[in-house]
Amino acid sequence: MTQTIYLDYQATTPCDPRVLEKMLPFFTKIFGNPHSRNHSYGWEAEQAVEIAREQVANLINANPKEVIFTSGATESNNIAIKGAAEFYKDKKNHIITCVTEHKCVLDSCRHLEERGFKVTYLPVKSNGLIDLDLLKSSITDKTILVSIMMVNNEIGVIQPITEIGKICREHNVYFHTDAAQAAGKIDIDVEAMNIDLLSISGHKIYGPKGIGALYVRRKPRIRLNALINGGGQERGIRSGTVPTPLCVGLGEACAIAKAEMVNENKKIKALYDRLYNGLHENLREIYVNGDQTNRIPGNLNISFAYVEGEGLMMGIKDLAVSSGSACTSASLEPSYVLRAIGVEEDLAHTSLRLGIGRFTTEAEIDQAIASITKAVNKLREMSPLWDMAQEGINMKSIQWAAH
Amino acid sequence: MIYLDYNATTPIIPAAQKAMFEAFACLGNPSSVHHHGRETRKLLESAREKVATYFGLPARNVTFTSGATEANNLILKGFKGIVLNSAVEHDSVLNVRSDAITVPVNEDGIINLEALEKLLKANDESLVCVLAVNNETGVVQPIAEILQICQKYNSHLHVDAAQAVGKITLNWQDLPSFTISAHKFGGPQGIGAIIINKPLTLSSLIKGGGQERGLRAGTENIIGAVGMGAAFGFDFSTLKPLQEKLENGILNSCPQAIIFGKSSERVTNTTNVFMPNVSSEVQLMHFDLNKISISSGAACSSGKVKTSHVLRAMGIPEETAKCAVRISTGWNTTESDVNQCIAVWTDLFNSQHFKKGIF
Predict the structure, then answer these.
(1) How many C-beta neighbours within 10 Å does residue A216 have?
(2) Are B188 and A27 inside 8 Å of each other by CB?
(3) What is the distance between the alpha carbons of residues A165 and B242, in angstroms, rounded to a whole number?
(4) pLDDT of residue B304
(5) Which of A283, A322, B141, B356 has the greatest number of beta carbons closer than 10 A?
(6) Which pLDDT band holds residue A327 (cuts at 50, 70, 90)?
(7) What are the tens digits of pLDDT across the range B301-315?
(8) What are phi and psi of A387, to 5 degrees?
């Protein structure tokens, strides 16, 4: 075994070499503060930032004036949810979101609850998608905002964004979507989808860490209270020196994604099929978590019955994968997303998230299949539960003695 | 082009560039438990150590942020009690708490210590926010005395040290907390830190995945952190001879020129100077046409028309403040740059005064 095979593209992506190349001059010769209005160092930096802004806007069919640079999707989500809530709180006080959102959305909502807002956390169906009728019936005349992520980071499912946008528009409610895992992977059109706020993450789209964007609709306008005040940069929505090289990186990453998305998705889908089929041929009782159709091809979240997740991860040291999302992977609790789609606790503990991306090769997929197969078989061999299951014993009928 | 706007931002020093480029090879989210994640985590923690070591503090006191603006917002918004700011703070402090009490400064730009004491007496257990080095004038605040007064009234002093790193020596360990900004001392844009030595009850600003001990959520900017960790070391005091040369050169050409804050303790890289009867706009244009980059006021307000709040707080009349520019040097500034600057300044002064028939 030489190097670990990276299959954790949802946790983070490597910076595309082409992105790196674009950023380099801005870490060296073109170092000006883009807000320095008085000299060419500033103008050059500003020009680069504005080009990047346009590249981000193009990816989602927005006007560049509607794109705000932030330090990442976590910050963008914080601004969108808390910012909108605080601005409109005099007349309204209700937010709707979904139980499978990323922690930064859930925590922002919890913070708002502490401040007296009401939050509805919509459940999801067993395929991970929200129930549109339930959404409709949850909206009240006090609802400010609906926040539903476009693509789930753990199970890769794609929510019915266009339908959600339509419902929100009809009910006069703002619509925010966390597109961190969606940008560059599915077509995004903020106009067609009736989106008012949208979060983008640089390091999920083969750009650098430390940069993201927030789309803020201007027509009709949505207002936000700023999270970070100061020099008034980014139309007053986000103060602080805009980091030129990181913006350039995000812009280039978006441009590459727009140009290559269709072909890349074909390639990744082929790898997904290879991976899934390979595992399915070798192993019984494996279950894909989340809707099979409305799903991005780069995410295979899969449970291996009668195998313990952490143990499995130790057995596949040559693969970099994850069980549970990166942010919460230090804790031993099973993923709340899997719980929300109805995966039983035992099965949830057996899950792996396999992430395929731009630089994944067939050879890597084949090695992954071999590694996982070997590890799962070994663990099942040692597992008395697996033996019992093979004998046809119904696990649920057993009264386990505690001692 | 000659760059003399180091207070706006600094070019990245070679050691930091090198460290960053090496770090680009590191792939992984530091929160991931696999090999890639752990290697990236090591890189992040090593950068944190470097930051902490520079200040002689434990690494756990260092919380990475996206910059000084965010760090200032974090503490000012996260603190629930009363806030006091000086009148010469950066916008990233002044524009955060609309309910903050302003402490006046004297005409040298130094905080009025009696006023501070009086205000704290009436509002103990407050948060006091003071910048150590003014970004516009380079004036240094008497941090030790301010700290003493704060301690007397059980108040937490937060020092905005964005323009201080490498320029002055503070007793960093004694400060309850302070802000730093990488791109002001030779590191990259997009990274800073808040260093908290005396814990206080603080609610986080950016919520989510629990990073930075729950104080600042979001996947960490590894390259930025590495760049910041490797950027310490340039000693701005080596620029003192250049500052003297510059200021003497200007005063020789025009004895009526005024260097703001000259009579206070000031850092060695900043010169905020008044040219009689010539507006800042004309000066900036002239300098730019002569391939020298300087500025007036703070970078973030360089598009705005109103005059510097810092100069106004020092009691400088509007007409005078309108004719001030800021020249700031740094690690790559040479004597030749300064000579050129003096020549261009002088050239403009002479031609403007000749034009106006003033002699």
Answers:
(1) 27
(2) yes
(3) 61
(4) 63
(5) A322
(6) low
(7) 656 667 899 999 999
(8) -55, -50
Q: What is the structure's pLDDT at B302?
A: 59
Is the Cβ of B5 closer than 8 Å to some Cβ of chain A? Answer: yes
Describe the strand order of the beta sheet including B258-259 as a list of residue ranges.
B258-259, B270-274, B324-328
The pLDDT of residue B26 is: 86
**Residue B9 contacts A, CB cutoff 8 Å:** yes
Least Cα separation, residue B272 to chain A (angstroms): 16
Helix (H, G, I), strand (E, B) or coil at A145: strand
- Cβ–Cβ gap B303/A227 under 8 Å: no
- Judge: B190–A28 Cβ closer than 8 Å, yes or no: no
Partner residue opposite A72 with nearest CB, options B219, B298, B299: B219
Our CA-based measurement puts residue B55 at a distance from the nearest CA of chain A, in whole angstroms, of: 24
Tens-place pLDDT, residues B71-88: 999 999 999 999 999 999
- Catalytic residue, chosen from B26, B129, B150, B300, is B300
| B79 contact partners, CB below 8 Å, separation of at least 6 | B127, B156, B200, B201, B202
With cut-offs at 50, 70 and 90, classify the pLDDT of residue B330: very high
* Domains of chain B as residue ranges with CATH: 2-9+235-355 (3.90.1150.10), 14-229 (3.40.640.10)
pLDDT for residue B157: 98
Q: Is B160 helix (H, G, I), strand (E, B) or coil?
A: strand
Residues of chain B in contact with residue A210, where contact means CB-CB under 8 angstroms, are 66, 190-191, 220-224
Q: What is the pLDDT of residue A386?
A: 87
Q: Give tens-digit pLDDT for B154-164.
A: 999 999 999 99
Query: Which of B9, B27, B209 is opposite residue A327, by nearest beta carbon?
Result: B209
CB-count burial class (<10 Å; 0-12, 13-18, 19+) for B238: exposed
Judge whether B323 counts as a catalytic residue. no
Count Cβ–Cβ pairs < 8 Å, chain A vs chain B.
254
Residues A365 and A213: beta-carbon distance below 8 Å: no
Please answer yes or no on whether A8 and B29 come within 8 Å at the CB atom.
Answer: yes
Which of B116, B132, B127 is CA-nearest to residue B157?
A: B127
Comparing A394 with A382, the larger pLDDT belongs to A382
